[in-house]
Write a structure and sequence with these properties.
Aspartate Aminotransferase, domain 2, 7-stranded mixed β-sheet, 384 residues, 13 helices, 3-stranded antiparallel β-sheet, 16% strand, alpha/beta, binds pyridoxal-5'-phosphate
């Protein structure tokens, strides 16, 4: 097996060599002065990416740990919550909320559709007694390649006091997310997406309004207790031993992200999305998401009926060392997903699209070799 792969997954993503070198450093005392300086530096960096002055806590956990931390820290068993679910990660929020005893109202969408902010407005308006404590949803629904309109959903909340809890694990740094301007109470991110470091870190931003619930929540919590995280942060520490090597990597990756600038990063990811959409159109492939809600981080393409999704994925790996993802849950076998976030460039994507064209041809699908790549190249030439 070749070491070289073109990793086009919606996470884990490719890791820049600078970040890998940083992660190879010797361990340090996690309660010493160097760790304190690093923790404060990376926390400030994440705040910039979240576009917030709210408290931010870094957890040693995968993204789901961040989701669990958000739920367990604001819920009292029996509390009403609203989960807007338009994919596999929306379902995960439903499961976590139920696991912590919440009374969950699910606003369910077809997988591939975006959340309609009017539905949120309607549900919250019906809740005259303000029993709904929080609204949970995804910024970017990775399982379907749909970017939800967080700003519009926040506006739809109106004067209802429910907290907004946004899973921005795969969307952050690829698409705009303005935690403060859009009034997001808890936003969650994960390391193995546009942060370009390996899996194992999650981070949460916590608004003042959210803190009121954190102080009162009675759901079980221990490892993810944010009250403890806050107490230790004041000393420049985390309650438990953090994944130091990942923090070394995060320090470097934040430098890369902030040096590029968020606006430039969003534009770059938009261009990748446009490249995949142009290629798909030229190859007569149908996309799952509607164009106006298409994700800049991951694109979901419907698989032509005569071909198996796993045949495409396996052949891409075996013939070209190109790694893409299959569909999750009920979309398994129906779509393929091309991740284009973080440390990818236009040529990685062109290579992946070229391999996809040839693979479809080899599997007997009627494609004009070169048509998809030409269309994607045109987007790359224009720069967007
Ligand atoms: C939107 C979203 N939420 C949550 C998760 C779960 O993160 P993890 O697999 O790191 O626990 C993912 C991972 O792909 C994701 O994309």
């Amino acid at each position: 097996m070749w070491e070289k792969q073109i990793l086009l997954l919606p996470g884990p993503t490719q890791v820049p060599p600078k970040v890998m070198r940083a992660m190879a450093a010797q361990q340090i005392n996690h309660r010493g002065p160097e760790a304190k300086e690093m923790l404060y530096e990376v926390t400030e960096g994440i705040k910039k990416v979240f576009q917030t002055t709210n408290d931010v806590f870094i957890l040693t956990a995968s993204g789901t740990g961040g989701m669990e931390a958000a739920v367990s820290n604001i819920i009292c068993p029996g509390d009403k919550v609203l989960v807007a679910s338009n994919g596999s990660f929306g379902e995960r929020f439903v499961k976590i909320c139920r696991a912590f005893g919440a009374d969950v109202e699910v606003l369910e969408y077809q997988w591939g559709e975006p959340i309609n902010p009017d539905d949120i407005a309607y549900h919250l308006e019906q809740d005259k007694k303000h029993q709904i404590k929080a609204v949970f949803f995804q910024h970017n629904e990775t399982s379907t390649g749909v970017l939800n309109d967080v700003k519009a959903i926040s506006e739809a909340r109106g004067n209802h006091p429910a907290l907004l809890v946004v899973d921005a694990i795969s969307g952050l740094a690829a698409a705009d997310l303005q935690v403060d301007n859009w009034g997001i109470d808890i936003a969650i991110c994960g390391s193995q997406k546009a942060f370009m470091i390996p899996p194992g870190l999650a981070a949460l931003s916590v608004s003042e309004r959210a803190w009121e619930l954190v102080e009162r929540a009675t759901a079980s919590r221990f490892y993810f207790d944010l009250r403890l995280a806050k107490k230790f942060f004041e000393k420049g520490q985390t309650p438990f031993t953090p994944a130091l090597s990942l923090l070394f990597g995060l320090k470097e990756s934040l430098k890369i992200i902030l040096e590029e600038g968020l606006e430039n990063s969003f534009k770059r990811h938009e261009m990748y999305k446009n490249m995949v959409w142009a290629a798909a159109e030229a190859l007569d492939l149908e996309m799952l998401a509607p164009r106006e809600a298409a994700s800049p981080a991951v694109s979901a393409i419907k698989v032509p009926p005569e071909i198996g999704a796993d045949d495409i994925v396996n052949k891409l790996l075996n013939d070209f060392n190109v790694v893409i993802a299959e569909g999750q849950g009920k979309l398994n076998g129906k779509i393929i997903r091309i991740g284009h976030l973080g440390y990818v460039d236009g040529l990685d994507l062109l290579a992946g699209l070229s391999a996809l064209e040839i693979t479809l041809y080899r599997l007997g699908h009627d494609v004009t070799i070169g048509a998809g790549v030409k269309a994607a190249e045109e987007v790359l030439r224009r720069g967007g």
